[in-house]
Design brief:
6 helices, 6-stranded mixed β-sheet, globular, alpha/beta, Nucleotidyltransferase, domain 5
C-alpha cells in the first residue's frame, strides 16, 4: 500500500494556479555523461510582471535567435546573462521555483523504457518523475497546475501520463483530483519562460558534465554558479525543498532523499 503523507507547505499562498514550464538539456549529446530535465514553477500573480521583464530584456538586446544556453553570444554581457540574473532574482523573492534532475545516461538501458525504446523514451520517463515529485507533490494539493513542456519527441506523449500522475499524487501526496488542469507542449521559440529556464538549466548541466566551453559560455556558467551560491552538484537538496532543488536521479532509489541537504542558499 502506498502511504499518504502530509503535503509540503504551500509556498505560493493565494495562487489559483501554477504554471509549470519544463525542458530537457543535453539528452542528444551522447559524449556527455549527464543529461537533465527541469521545471520552472510560476504562480499566476507572477506571470505578467515576469513576462514584461523578459520582453524588456529581449527588446534591449534584439537577439537574432532564441535566448538559450546554446545560442549564448560572445561577451560577458548578453540577453542570456540578463535572463540568468532575472530568474535568480525572482527565485530569491519567492516568486519562482526551479527544479533540476540530473540523470547519468549510463544508468539506463533505453530499450527497457519501452520495447525498442530510445533515449527519448528514457527522457520521457524522467519527465514523469519531474512532474510527480515537483509540481504534483508541491502544488497539486493546493491549486491547479498548467504544464507547458518544450515541444519535442520526449514530450510528445506526456499527456498519456496525466492519469497515472494524478492517481499517484492523490494516493501518496494528497494532491487534489485532476490537479493537472492542462498539459500543452509549446515551441520554445514562442515562449520566453521556456527560454528563461533553458539558459540556467543549460549552464548547470554543462557544469555537471564539467564541460569545457568557449570563453563566453564559461563566463555564463560562472555567473549562474555564483548566483546560486556555488552549490555542490553531487549533493541533492532535501525532497521538500521548493525554491531551488537539485536531484541526482538513481534508478534504484527513484524518489528524492529525505536525508539530503536542506535548502541551498
Amino acid at each position: 500500500m502506498v502511504s499518504r503523507k502530509p503535503p509540503p507547505p504551500f509556498q505560493f499562498p493565494g495562487a489559483k494556479y501554477v504554471g509549470y514550464f519544463c525542458d530537457e538539456s543535453t539528452h542528444t549529446q551522447f559524449d556527455q555523461t549527464y543529461f537533465s530535465v527541469g521545471g520552472l514553477a510560476l504562480p499566476d500573480r507572477v506571470y505578467a510582471p515576469l513576462l514584461m521583464r523578459l520582453e524588456e530584456i529581449k527588446d534591449k538586446w534584439k537577439p537574432l535567435k532564441e535566448i538559450k544556453w546554446s545560442t549564448t553570444p560572445p561577451g560577458e554581457h548578453s540577453a542570456q546573462t540578463d535572463f540568468a540574473r532575472c530568474l535568480s532574482e525572482f527565485i530569491k523573492q519567492g516568486d519562482a521555483h526551479l527544479h533540476i534532475i540530473f540523470v547519468n545516461r549510463h544508468d539506463f538501458d533505453n530499450a527497457k523504457s519501452l520495447p525498442g525504446g530510445t533515449i527519448n523514451d528514457t527522457v520521457s520517463k524522467m519527465f514523469w518523475q519531474l512532474l510527480l515529485w515537483h509540481p504534483v507533490t508541491f502544488y497539486g494539493p493546493h491549486c491547479d497546475i498548467h504544464v507547458r513542456p518544450d515541444k519535442g519527441e520526449p514530450t510528445r506523449n506526456l499527456e498519456k501520463y496525466i492519469a497515472s500522475l494524478e492517481d499517484r499524487g492523490k494516493r501518496q501526496q494528497r494532491a487534489k483530483p485532476k490537479c493537472i488542469t492542462s498539459l500543452k507542449p509549446r515551441e520554445s521559440g514562442e515562449v520566453l519562460m521556456l527560454q528563461l529556464l533553458d539558459v540556467t538549466m543549460g549552464a548547470f548541466t554543462a557544469m555537471k558534465n564539467r564541460r569545457l566551453n568557449n570563453r563566453h559560455k564559461t563566463d555564463l556558467k560562472k555567473l549562474v554558479d555564483d548566483l546560486y551560491g556555488n552549490p555542490d552538484l553531487a549533493i541533492d537538496t532535501h525532497k521538500h525543498v521548493q525554491p531551488f532543488k537539485l536531484w541526482n536521479f538513481r534508478p534504484d532509489t527513484p524518489e528524492p532523499s529525505e536525508k539530503a541537504l536542506p535548502a541551498l542558499s
